[in-house]
Amino acid sequence: MTTVPGVHLEFAEPARPASVARTDVAAFVGVSPHGPAFAAVPVDDPAALAETGTLGDTVKAFFDNGGRRCWVVRVPEPDGLLDGLGALETVDEVSLVAVPDVHWRPPRIPATSPLPQPPPDPCRPGPPGPSASLVRPARITPLTEAEALAVQRRLVGDCERRGDRVALLDPPPGLDVDEVLVWRGRFDTSYASLYHPWVRVPEPSGRTRLVAPSGFAAGVCARVDRASGVHTAPANRELSWAVGLGGEVGDAEQAVLDPAGVNCLRALPGRGIRIYGARTLATDPAWRHLPVRRWFVAVERAAAVASRQFAFQPADFVRRQLLTVVLTGLLEEQWRRGALAGATPEEAFFVRCDTGDDRLLATVGVAVVRPAEFLIFRIGRVEGELTIREEAP
Fold first, then answer.
1. What integer pLDDT is reported at residue 300 of this predicted model?
2. CA distances from 139 to 151, 212, 287, 393 (A)
3. What's the pLDDT at 8?
4. Domain map of the chain by residue range?
5. Chunked in runs of 10, what are the mean pLDDT values of the chain (393 residues)?
6. Cα separation of 193 and 280, whole Å?
7. What pLDDT, on the 0 to 100 scale, is given for residue 236?
8. Is the pTM of this model over 0.70?
């Protein structure tokens, strides 16, 4: 600081602007005998993964449909899936999570006969070797329905607790409409989506096999996020690699499943196979649209990161103005991208900052494109800690 008499100007450090981080990174937890177990491994090139089985199919579906980066957690057996979810706790860039192997079933590998024994050698001492018997593949025990449900509930609970990612759930394969509704009825959350039916993919032999739909859904989400933003519905995009479905879903079936929050996959004449829904599993109408929940996840994360610069600073007028500028800039950018309704920024959102008792609190209201009404979340510092709380409109 200068000691020369006179008038001197001292400029405070400007507030760092807020920006939305990428939302197209997925994570998959699955059964595999390869690679490190219970460790999250980043994958940017599916060819380098060299994975087979359900996990390999899911990763291929993700990349074939628009994904560019994911994390993979391998577990040796299905009963390790719960522990595998814990490996994602330290991976912050993930915004979509799926556990396709929760419904894993062992492949139908027939028992094979061993190689024929050579004729006895009279010059070789010792008794003859053991008699030949059928060689059967090692068996891995799949999860029961209750165990599979427990894994999915743990996944959903993790997403709700963290508030920075959404679960993509698979129902068991081969369910009819009533059975899918029963499975869907076990969840009430805006942090998860359910996709039905499973997808048929080609095999080199000319046959097809069923693959969980969550990998396809994650790829479509990633593709749409990069093309037009996380606020856009990840639906009505033709699926790559898919040649059929595990069950027929027509207008009558979708008329039942769609209002219940089940996202249907449809085989449409001349348009290919498409995901024809973008709903969450929430019963609250304000949160029934997947892009609404995912947009809030992305914006709340961006607001939280940008607001950390005000931690442990005086809760005065200057800090209120700086926080208002940061949040306003973030929301104006989202309005220009079409994520918010309203002809002007004033119609699309508001930001109000207040202080008191060591608190720096910002109340933010946004008119999301769908539903076109104000949803409220509060972001602020209370006793040195950053808090975010959503409120009903």
1. 94
2. 21, 21, 42, 53
3. 53
4. 26-106+142-283, 306-391
5. 59 69 97 93 91 92 98 96 97 97 76 61 60 52 96 98 97 97 98 98 96 98 97 96 97 96 97 96 95 96 89 84 93 95 94 79 89 59 64 63
6. 5
7. 94
8. yes
Q: Class assignment of domain 26-106+142-283? A: alpha beta
